[in-house]
Each structure stands twice: as structure tokens, then as C-alpha cells.
């Protein structure tokens, strides 16, 4: 299977059903974990991690000054 549809697999229900059917079709014993965090929750956690790293390791005042934007 292949997909070029941006965001298609972001829908938790669709992704679990689709990947479950792929696993079944290939004889894999994989089953989706209904307790797994949602796509949105995982994306938010990754964005928070990135934001924390940027805040910790970059001089935001200097970057803001360079852009000419108000802080």
C-alpha cells in the first residue's frame, strides 16, 4: 500500500483500521493498541519538546531583534 494523501493517516480511527487491515492481509499478528496516544497528542508533545529546546538553547531576544518583530 502507498499513499500520497497528506494527512490521511492522522485520523486515529482510520489509521488503526487501515493498518490493522494491512497487517491482517500480510499475515502479521500486529494489532493496534487502543490505549496508544492519539496522533494529535503525540504531535503536541513533539512540538512542546521542540519549543522547550529552542527556548533553552537559543537566544530568543537576539533572534527577535534580528527579525525586527516585537517580542
Question: Mind explaining what this structure looks like?
Answer:
- This protein is mainly alpha-helical.
- 59% of the residues lie in helices and 0% in strands.
- The protein contains three helices and no strands.
- It has helices spanning 12-26, 39-57, 60-67.
- The longest helix has 19 residues, at 39-57.
- The termini are far apart.
List the helices and strands and how they pair.
Elements: H1 12-26, H2 39-57, H3 60-67
- The counted number of beta strands is 0
In oligomeric terms, what are we looking at? single chain
Kindly provide the radius of gyration, computed on alpha-carbon positions and rounded to a whole number of angstroms: 19 Å
Distance between the termini: 47 Å
Sheet-strand content, in percent, reads: under 5%
Structural class of the helix and strand makeup? mainly alpha
Low-confidence parts lasting 5 or more residues at pLDDT below 50? Answer: none
DSSP helix count? Answer: 3
Instruction: Give helix and strand order, one letter per element, not per position.
Output: HHH
Proportion in helices: 55-70%
Indicate the mean pLDDT.
91
**Major sheet: size, sense and barrel closure?**
none
Overall outline: elongated
Quick structural summary:
This protein is mostly helical. It has helices at residues 12-26, 39-57, 60-67.
Amino acid at each position: 500500500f502507498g499513499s500520497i494523501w497528506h494527512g490521511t493517516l492522522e485520523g486515529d480511527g482510520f489509521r488503526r483500521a487501515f493498518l490493522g487491515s494491512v497487517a491482517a492481509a500480510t499475515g502479521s499478528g500486529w494489532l493496534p493498541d487502543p490505549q496508544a496516544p492519539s496522533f494529535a497528542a503525540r504531535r503536541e508533545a513533539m512540538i512542546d519538546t521542540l519549543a522547550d529546546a529552542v527556548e533553552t538553547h537559543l537566544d530568543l531576544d537576539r533572534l527577535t531583534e534580528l527579525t525586527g518583530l516585537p517580542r
